[in-house]
Design goal:
The chain has about 120 residues and is mainly α. It has 4 helices and no strands.
Length: about 120
């Protein structure tokens, strides 16, 4: 990987942690409940992971280097395993965030929801 591609810690944090934190706030406090279940989440996560893997390989063919140094070390089979494991982690994250949303907003609990996110009319 060329030297000019190296990111500072602050830039890396800005590209990854800050958007993740803002999306979490959006999900928990501003979004309607998710309707996705585990099986479709796994299918969606698997599709996204493997499309991204193909994109990474296309970038390598074009640029001659991978955007992440880890990919230089891994074999093709190991990269496939990495993206498959990433899909499983994304699915578990989806299930965990859906559960957390329910806990924060009262869905899936004995007390029931106190408000419906996005409801602008009062009944």
């Amino acid at each position: 990987m060329p030297e000019w591609v190296q990111l500072s810690y602050a830039a890396d944090l800005g590209f990854h942690a800050v958007p993740a934190l803002l999306l979490l706030i959006d999900l928990l406090f501003l979004s309607p409940p998710w309707t996705i279940t585990v099986a479709p989440a796994l299918a969606l996560s698997g599709t996204l992971a493997f499309v991204y893997w193909f994109w990474i390989e296309l970038c390598y063919q074009h640029n001659g280097w991978y955007p992440y140094p880890l990919f230089e070390v891994l074999s093709q089979t190991q990269r496939i395993a990495l993206f498959a494991a990433s899909a499983v982690v994304m699915t578990l994250s989806t299930a965990t965030l859906k559960w957390l949303y329910g806990r924060v907003n009262g869905y899936g609990t004995a007390r029931g929801p106190s408000a419906r996110p996005g409801a602008v009319k009062s009944e």
